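Typical record is below.
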Amino acid sequence: MQVISARLRAVSSEAPPTTPPTTFDELVALLQQRLADLSPSHRLLAELVMADPEGIAFMTVSELAAAVRVNESTVVRFASGLDLDGYPGLTRLCRAKLREEAQLLRRFSHVEQLATDDKPRDPLSLAADFDQANIARTLARVDPPAWNGAVAALTEAPRVHILGLRKCYTVSYLLGYLLRLVRDDVEIVTQGPGTLVDELRRLRPGDCFVAIGIHRYNGDTVRALRWAQRTGATTIALTDNPSSPLAEGTDHTFYVDTTGVALLRSLAAFTSLVQALANAVAAARGVDTISALAREEELLDEFGVYE
């Protein structure tokens, strides 16, 4: 009886069976959930899968192992540990993701070659091609439930806090400026000498916190987002790919393409996305937006801001 009881306890303590991911988005959600518990080599593999499904789709086990500098057996164990049917199951989900974006990718498949063509290109037309591709890819990847949730949070939260540092400060300023035109209590969080902590102290449960960052991810932005999550704020991330630390545990995440002509990253897609968010908030607020804009015009006229 003791043996039987021990076996029953062992069975009851086993974790319930997990459901294998059937789409790339489900795979990303699973990887994000397990990321903190992965070994260093498996974490590298997870980050590469989330950041570059297009590249993984047609890689062999040997090629992926070489890319991350691990053994082939490590790649196989990584894929099997995700409840997939080995490495073919992993590449199949990546290829499915590729098929979803096939039309868009074909439309802009020439863009990546433009900067390396032997024939010189006019920098302006080259930048236009890259930015057009970035904007189209970014907006095509927007998840409708995430969009609706983000707009609701930006519209209804008692206070909105927006943080983007270094290059992403321009994005945070634009979003904050536009939101301030249509609603009150919008704070652009800055990183002055010792002021970041002071500004984060104002965060309250139910507020909305927007974190903006691309690789390499600013440590203060990541830490501030974690603080907002612990505080109970609704969190929104604008970042570059699912392996970003800003995507981890965030309520609503949007992935922005930032491919540039040369070494500098493009912010064109960021600009389009934050303008769309601000316009959606303005529409959601309805007559309140009209009142806010009327007050803005009255002040502009009173102070003679424009010639």
Observations:
- The beta strands are 160-164, 186-189, 208-212, 234-239, 252-255.
